[in-house]
């Protein structure tokens, strides 16, 4: 049986991604609060920001799920190929 290879993320990469998301979201929120515009304009832009954030999270999940499905199917294909290769005997004579 082959050992499953799992991609690893470093703690620094994870921390950088979380910090980057937090900083960008905070900067946008502060910018919307201090924007010299009517309250309805700020509310509309805030809803737009929330929509972009939620759709980004959903997109990340869909991409991850699709990648996992393709990895599973390629592992199944690899297992079938391994089975065929182990059962094949080039020196066998059919009588």
What would you note in describing this structure?
It contains 2 helices and no strands. The protein is mainly α. Helix 1 packs antiparallel against helix 2. The longest helix is centred in the middle third of the chain and has 49 residues, at 39-87. The protein is elongated.
> What is the N-to-C order of secondary-structure elements (H for helix, E for strand)?
HH
* Spatial gap, N to C terminus: 33 Å
Helix content: over 70%
Number of helices: 2
Shape: elongated
Binned strand content: under 5%
Largest sheet: none
What is the mean predicted local confidence, pLDDT?
Answer: 84
Radius of gyration: 25 Å
**Spans of 5+ residues with little confidence (pLDDT < 50)?**
none
Structural class: mainly alpha
Organism: Kribbella karoonensis
InterPro entries: YiaA-like (IPR038972), YiaAB (IPR008024)
Protein name: YiaA/YiaB family inner membrane protein
Pfam family, one: YiaAB
Descriptive key words:
single chain, 95 residues, mainly alpha, 2 helices, 76% helix, 0% strand
Entry summary:
The chain crosses the membrane at residues 12-34, 40-60. By secondary structure, the chain is mostly helical. The chain has helices spanning 11-33, 39-87.
Q: What is the topology?
A:
Elements: H1 11-33, H2 39-87
Helix pairs in contact: 1-2
């Amino acid at each position: 049986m082959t050992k499953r290879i799992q991609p690893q993320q470093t703690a620094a990469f994870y921390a950088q991604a979380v910090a980057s998301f937090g900083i960008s979201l905070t900067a946008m929120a502060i910018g919307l609060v201090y924007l010299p515009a009517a309250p309805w304009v700020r509310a509309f832009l805030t809803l737009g920001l929330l929509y972009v954030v939620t759709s980004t999270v959903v997109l990340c999940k869909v991409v991850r799920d699709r990648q996992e499905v393709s990895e599973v199917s390629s592992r199944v294909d690899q297992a079938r190929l391994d089975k065929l290769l182990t059962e094949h005997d080039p020196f066998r004579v059919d009588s």
